[in-house]
Structure formats: structure tokens, C-alpha cells
């Protein structure tokens, strides 16, 4: 994260809060880029298109996110919904990559 962004507890102005939010958003995009890189790797590795969607794995990932969120006193239901969207987007991306790699 941006070394100039203050930790939330040290913010005293809305400009500082906004700078921290903006820096966090950039860091999240960087992490999403990494996550989708793993989807590209999975598309390259999986020999069968049908293996892309794994409902058991999907539920495990969402459950882990909910549990981690709740341990941090974050809203578990909201985080689970965000992860549902993230995982579904990842699956769609991986399917498109799988197809792209095997014309």
C-alpha cells in the first residue's frame, strides 16, 4: 500500500481518509490482477473445460472468506456476497482463457 497513506486510526481529516481509501483500492486491484493471473494459470493447466467450474471449491472459498471476515468483525454476509461475485467472475474469466488457449 502507499507509504504516504496513514493507517485508519491515525487519520484526522477526510483528505487523509480518502487518500487511504484510494491507496487501498489500488492495492486491491493489484491483488485482483494477481488472483486473475492464477485463473490464467488454471486455464492453462486444466486439461478439461468441465474442470473449470468446481462448486465444492467455490463454496469452500466463499466460506473461508466469510469466516475470515467474521473473525475480523467484518460483515460476513456482505463479504460472502462479494466473494460470490468474485468467484463467478473468476470462473467466467478462466473459461474465456481456456477457450482462448484452445482455438
Q: Overview of this structure, please?
A:
With 103 residues, the protein is mostly helical. The protein has a single domain (11-101), classed as Chorismate mutase (Chorismate Mutase Domain, subunit A), CATH 1.20.59. 73% of the residues lie in helices and 0% in strands. It is built from three helices and no strands. Helix 1 (14-45) packs across helix 3. The longest helix is centred in the first third of the chain and has 32 residues, at 14-45. The protein starts with 13 loop residues before the first helix and ends with a helix. The mean pLDDT is 96.
Summary tags:
103 residues, mainly alpha, 73% helix, Chorismate Mutase Domain, subunit A
Number of strands: 0
Question: What's the mean pLDDT score?
Answer: 96
Query: What is the CATH homology-level superfamily?
Result: Chorismate mutase
Low-confidence stretches: none
The major sheet is characterized as: none
Helices and strands, in N-to-C order? Answer: HHH
CATH architecture descriptor: Up-down Bundle
CATH T-level fold name? Chorismate Mutase Domain, subunit A
- In total, how many domains does the architecture comprise? 1
Radius of gyration: 17 Å
Structural class: mainly alpha
> How much of the sequence is in beta strands?
under 5%
* Span between termini: 39 Å
Number of helices: 3
Report the CATH C-level class. Answer: Mainly Alpha
Question: What's the helical proportion of residues?
Answer: over 70%
Global outline: elongated
Question: What's the gist of this structure?
Answer:
The chain has 103 residues and is an all-alpha fold. It has three helices and no strands. Helix content is 73%, strand content 0%.
Amino acid at each position: 500500500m502507499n507509504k504516504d497513506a496513514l493507517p485508519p486510526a491515525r487519520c484526522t481529516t477526510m483528505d487523509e481518509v480518502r487518500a487511504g481509501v484510494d491507496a487501498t483500492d489500488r492495492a486491491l486491484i493489484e491483488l485482483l490482477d494477481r488472483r486473475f493471473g492464477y485463473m490464467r494459470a488454471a486455464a492453462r493447466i486444466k486439461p478439461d473445460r468441465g474442470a473449470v467450474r468446481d462448486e465444492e471449491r467455490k463454496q469452500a472459498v466463499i466460506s473461508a472468506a466469510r469466516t475470515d471476515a467474521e473473525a475480523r468483525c467484518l460483515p460476513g454476509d456482505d463479504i460472502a456476497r462479494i466473494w460470490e461475485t468474485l468467484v463467478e467472475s473468476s470462473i467466467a474469466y478462466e473459461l474465456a482463457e481456456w477457450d482462448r488457449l484452445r482455438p
